[in-house]
Amino acid sequence: MVRPLDIADFLEGATPIIDVRSPGEFAHGHIPGAHSLPLFSNEERVIVGTLYKQQGRDAAVLEGLRIVGPKLAAIVEEARALAPDGRIRVHCWRGGERSGSVAWLLDKAGFAEVVTLRRGYKAFRQHVLDSFSAPIDLLVLGGYTGTGKTELLGHLRTLGEQVIDLEALAHHKGSSFGALGEEPQPTTEHFENLLWNELRQVDRSRALWLEDESIMIGRCKIPQVLFDRMRSAVLYFADMPQEQRAERLVVDYGKFPKEQLAEATKRIERRLGPQHCKAALIALEAGDLKTVAMIMLTYYDKAYLHGAETRDAKQIVREDAAAADLRGLAQRLMEHAHVIAR
Questions:
Q1: CATH says 2-129 is which class?
Q2: Residues marked as catalytic
Q3: SS3 state of residue 109
Q4: Cβ contact 242:286 at 8 Å
Q5: I want to staple 32 with a disulfide (CB 3.0 to 4.6 A). Which of 197, 252, 253, 302 is the partner?
């Protein structure tokens, strides 16, 4: 049996989801947890699409059948491997020919239930974008570079707080050095999909902690409506001495090759200034990572302070931070936030 569903009901299901769009479409963005089972390769999709534009639907469908025919058995086998109980969800870009064809095939192959998505991935994307406007109580964790905000978020999560690590979703730590040691970044579209997936698991009756970020985390852009809320939320600023932060940066980044550190330094030469950039590169070559870190912090502290100036000072709560006691700081932040909430 094939059942078409609207996006809300489609997402409520617990059966495996197969995305029959091309690999390129899937890579650009997909429903988190979905499996790629493409009807056409990237090149085949171009061929069929070009035929549709130039000669019309009938010619495109006929060519599609020629391409897909030899793949039918493999599609059924892969779908059975994903859904051995014969219950599966299927979608394509618009909920049209591709998902309809695969759903028909699986139904004829004996699947007990095949669910399709009306309006396809387009409906999911609209659902994702709309979701960012839903009310949510945010608490924002801030602090200069090197404070250990990611570690602090981890401690808050351990203490039972709700946390989303935006940098982990973006595969980037937010600075010129932020891509070091990270997997390739998702597209902004898929970053939004991943963020939606995290937010839908949040208990909206409780506060959610996020790290203070620029609107861009590497190449991933935070949705504007969420970013605006982050900027107007209470900012808990962890104030750690620069010396301690420099030591943390040496530990965090000193493991990377000098060539990569030099490239990251040169990327911000204009903002550092030629003299500071040259001094940092000389120190790097000499293995003096502490000096490199102190030069970087001079720039990044000014940049962070400039962003913080756009906030309402009454919305900023400062807490002294020590590198050796981040768990204790997390406990204090949590307690302070709960007192304000009451």
A1: alpha beta
A2: 92
A3: coil
A4: no
A5: 197
